[in-house]
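Hey, can you fold this one?
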Amino acid sequence: MLMPLAFALIFSFLTSATVVQDFNHVERCKDSLYMGTPPRGIIETRLKKICQRYADKPRYVTLYDPQKRIPVYSAYTFKKTEGDRRVDYPWMYEPQLAETDGNGNMLPFPTGYLHMKFEDSQAVLDDYSDVVLYERGHLNPDQHQSTPHDRAATYTLTNVVPEIREFNIGPWREYEERIRVRLNNFCRGTAYIVTGVTTRGNMIRRNNQDRVAIPEDVWSAYCCTDYDHNSPHDVRIRFPSHAVLAKNAKEGSSVHEMTVQELENFLKNHMDVDQSLQIFYDNCISPSPLPLYLQHTI
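Sure. Predicted structure:
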């Protein structure tokens, strides 16, 4: 049996560290997930769960691959916004991927030396500095957030992947704007979004080393159970949940809309997942309470 002091120390660690064993161990971190439940069925042997924390507050969650140095997905709640895009926030990194001290907040990259232990666990600015074809593509985009702090928190390299420039500023940006307008106008409650990638082994190299995995596909899905039932039919059929899939390519990268179940079927053949893959708890069908047998497993 744990002594009270020992338990308090363990609890303090679980509630302050950014890289966690379970997303619901961090104050309000599970609020970024529909029914507080992360996507299930993803094989997580080497993956890190990050509660993306900025200015002492959890903002969203990311499942991160420290070997490929990109996120598998970021999950966040959509905030109604005018869609303007800010570009003056500093890029940040996640100290907790390399060490467990500190207050758990993401930090701006220093202007000088960054210890090698951080480069071993995540991407750094140098990985993107001399790459012409690719841009840093947000999985949780700043234009889906409203407050300055929530927007600033999206500018961490643990939330971005290398996206072909023409794809990033073309079809994918158009999709992000289309979803922003749709959720602004027709989602009455909270909209939960999960955006992720698939990879096939291609890497950005630096100093003759494989550094950052290049996504083959980019996918996204949203869940909003409280929506406008009087919306136009072509909108209403895209609630309570819907998904998209696109190739991370210079050409032929149109964004295809589909059901979440169709996306899950695709991902079962293109990601390291098992047949139980489910992006949203109970398929985002209803806000029913979690059954007791699941309450201790998420």
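Helices lie at 4-16, 116-121, 125-129, 148-152, 165-169, 171-186, 233-236, 260-268. Let me know if you want another pass with a different chain boundary.
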